[in-house]
Design goal:
about 250 residues, alpha/beta, seven-stranded mixed sheet, 9 helices, about 20% strand, globular
Length: about 250
């Protein structure tokens, strides 16, 4: 069961600013994609639920991967502007606008990945199975999701409950994700926390000046601490990562 709707995503993307920009080489989490592509000789990729497609653009622009983006809602104007900003023509990244759960004929890909998708569904096993179903033999799966079981999750629940409730918190568990990935028929499964410290709020711009000041103060204090003590933990790391092979 999805915790969001088409209307939610239309409103979400139309409300977002700064979606169009030249995608940098140091795009967050892109180091994993670069390493996978170099080690596994990735020729083509499928990004699930990744609109506006920054990661697909990254793969095409910097690693010459034949990239495809599949999402339930794709805003054509934003997508075209993003390609232009990265000096890619309209055929630079393929797009599929479709319901992930109702695709009959599936092409297979060397790399199937998503960033911030599976936590919007309560049926974790099914959504991981769908990722795996697009993989070629010996293909690679990469999934990242936010970690809301630590400080960042407490902030979300306390100060942006509406956004918090659109995430399935039970799936944000390394053992749950490892088991689901193995049951999807994949091997060499790695699940781990990524990032030393980060907190964010989708609705921060609507908060008072005093709240913003306190939020940024907390951010700077913890950022300084984790610069000195660079550890990745359930309590402070912003992301969870899954990597596996078929």
């Amino acid at each position: 069961m999805s915790l969001t709707s088409r209307e939610f995503w239309l409103n979400y993307w139309e409300s977002k600013k700064n979606l169009v920009f030249p995608v940098p080489q140091n795009l967050i989490l892109s180091d994993f994609l670069r390493e996978i592509c170099n080690k596994r000789n990735i020729k083509n990729s499928l990004e699930l639920g990744g609109f506006p497609g920054h990661y697909s653009v990254y793969l095409q622009k910097y690693l010459d991967v034949d990239a495809t983006l599949l999402d339930y809602v794709i805003h054509p104007k934003i997508f075209t502007e993003l390609l232009a900003a990265n000096q890619l023509n309209e055929k630079g990244v393929h797009i599929i606008e479709a319901d992930l759960f109702n695709i009959k004929n599936k092409e297979k890909y060397d790399l199937v990945f998503s960033n911030g998708l599976i936590e919007h569904f309560e049926n974790t096993q099914e959504i991981v199975n769908i990722h795996a179903s697009f993989l070629k033999e010996k293909g690679t799966l990469f999934i990242s999701i936010p970690n809301f079981k630590g400080l960042n999750g407490w902030m979300q629940k306390k100060f942006d409950k509406d956004n918090f409730e659109k995430h399935y918190i039970a799936c944000m568990d390394l053992d749950v994700l490892k088991k689901a990935t193995e049951e999807a028929g994949l091997k060499n499964v790695k699940t781990f926390y990524n990032g030393k410290f980060m907190i964010w709020l989708e609705n921060l711009s609507t908060k008072s000046t005093c709240f913003k000041f306190l939020f940024k103060t907390v951010w700077f204090i913890f950022k300084a601490i984790f610069t000195i003590i660079p550890i990745e933990t359930k309590w402070f790391s912003p992301y969870i990562v899954i990597i596996a092979n078929k």
